[in-house]
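Appendix B. Chain record.
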Amino acid sequence: MNLRVLYHNNCFDGACSASLFTKFHRECIGTATEYSYKGLAHKAGAQFDPADFSGNENAIVDFKYYDSPKLTWWFDHHQSAFLTEADHEDFLRDKSGKKFFDPTRISCTGFIADIAREKFGFSTKGLEDLLLWADIIDGAKFESADAAVGLAAPAMKLMMAIEGTSDPTFIPQLIPLLTSQSLVDTLQENFVQAEVQPRLEKHHRDITLLRSRAASDHGVITFDITDQPTEGYNKFIPYYLLPQGVYVVGLSKSSFRTKISVGTNPWTTVSTDKLANIAAICERYGGGGHPRVGAISVPVDRVDEARRIAAEVTAELKALDQRNILPTD
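Structure tokens predicted for this chain:
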């Protein structure tokens, strides 16, 4: 029996969630003889292709809910987990005991670990480093912007490779290793090093590019790199370059979408109760995320529309300065 695991693509927490779920399912459920993987990306329009749910069982981890009888397992922690109210109602009606949601959790990896341990007797012994880094990376719990951009730890280099790869075989090949050996050993795998080394070079080019494009005004960092298509960049670079910024609104383009990235500086001194709910803002434009970080996807050929949305979001965040929430740069 095949179990199909669909996970948040190009995301460290998404890959770790897929790996942890696989280990849990193999050890505690045991109904699958093989596991296959498919990354899911937020995009404009429909989020799911029914053909992707090709397993005898199908799981989604760290991604939106899908109202389908083919969905067997689901774990998510995003505020914007439900595309429609009907999806939310379908989840609430579910009595399978295999679908779980908690938007207060820092990482989906940690959420899966706790549910698997508490409800199914799963042992997380030996996974402490993975769980720690999933929370640090997905919760932006780095001690400084320098630490987030410096990429000194093995987990940070793996994050860089996962976020930036355009090879559809890389993450599925990586997933089983994340819970079967240490992150240090995983980083040393030849196929991982082949991805990491060029990504490190690109990382330094990204810093140079964003240094030339990013500007901060009334606490909001903005940049537009849609003329330099990229499959990903370190989202903490803007705060590293402009630490006085409280929010960022960035425009980028990949092979399948134009993306408006919206985020909050993890190291801002502005009190939490005065910060905007980023997920709620992004939801108004068909996007979503977490209270402190989110994104909006627009078709790849509609850059002008993306720029209009980015300008509106930027204006909304700048307007907070009128209530003396943000500093004037």
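Further analysis of this model is presented in Appendix C.
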